[in-house]
Amino acid sequence: MTDKNQVLSYWQKFFADLLIGTFVNLFLFGAVGFVVGMIGIYSLKEIYIWEADWSGWLQWLVLIAALLWYGLWGPIHGVIASIIHTARGKFQQMVGGLHDLMDILVSGVLSNYPHVNKSIPKEELARKFDAIGKKFLDELKLKGGPINWMKGLFFRAVLKVLKFIFLDDVMEELNKKGKDHLDRADIESAVRRVGVEFVISTLTDQMLILQGLNILALAFTFGLPFFLFWYF
């Protein structure tokens, strides 16, 4: 029987390790983001600020605002890139954790039904899966600040893929058993038979998409001041 507290501790440690023990990556990616920000400040200063027919105090005021903008967003994008990069690596190591999480979620959903068969609407199963997944996410306490927001986003991606596998593959395995009452051994067996290698592949693909979105967001924050100066 899978212990929920152990699974909860596993995922809490998993998300803590995204930062703890990865300071080199954080420093490198953060430094790259900071350098990109400084390049943005220098370019903005040389192209627009010093060339503008403004008073000296206004030029310095705009320069300080640009320093705050790029000095903030450059490192933030670097840290986000570091977390995504680290998460992709750790996803390869979490097969056992995914099996146990799936076992907890599936057991929670099916505990609502005395008999499991194909007549149960998928929409109903999906709603119950989402509710139990949200409760588990709340217990991870991933709230407050952009870093915890990113961690929560990662876990929601995990839940989304697990729900897809549960509704299609796990339920198919359970229906094959042809039993009126399913015990924990039946559920664990079905989860193990389905496997989570597909989940790992899907999640790493989603991390690549998130990294691409982060790069696009970096391009937006980098180019926005230039656009505003050019437009106005």
| Rg for CA atoms | 24 Å
In terms of structural class, how would the helical and strand content be classed? Answer: mainly alpha
Residue windows where pLDDT falls under 50 for at least 5 positions: none
Domain count:
1
How much strand?
under 5%
In short:
By secondary structure, this protein is mainly α. It contains 8 helices and no strands.
Report on the structure:
The structure is a single chain. With 232 residues, this protein is an all-alpha fold. The protein has one domain. The chain is built from eight helices and no strands. The chain has helices at 4-16, 23-49, 56-91, 95-110, 122-140, 145-176, 184-194, 197-231. It is elongated and about 80 Å long. The model has no long low-confidence stretch (mean pLDDT 78).
How is the secondary structure organized here?
Blueprint: H1 4-16, H2 23-49, H3 56-91, H4 95-110, H5 122-140, H6 145-176, H7 184-194, H8 197-231
Helix pairs in contact: 1-4, 2-3, 2-8, 3-8, 4-5, 4-7, 5-6, 6-7, 6-8
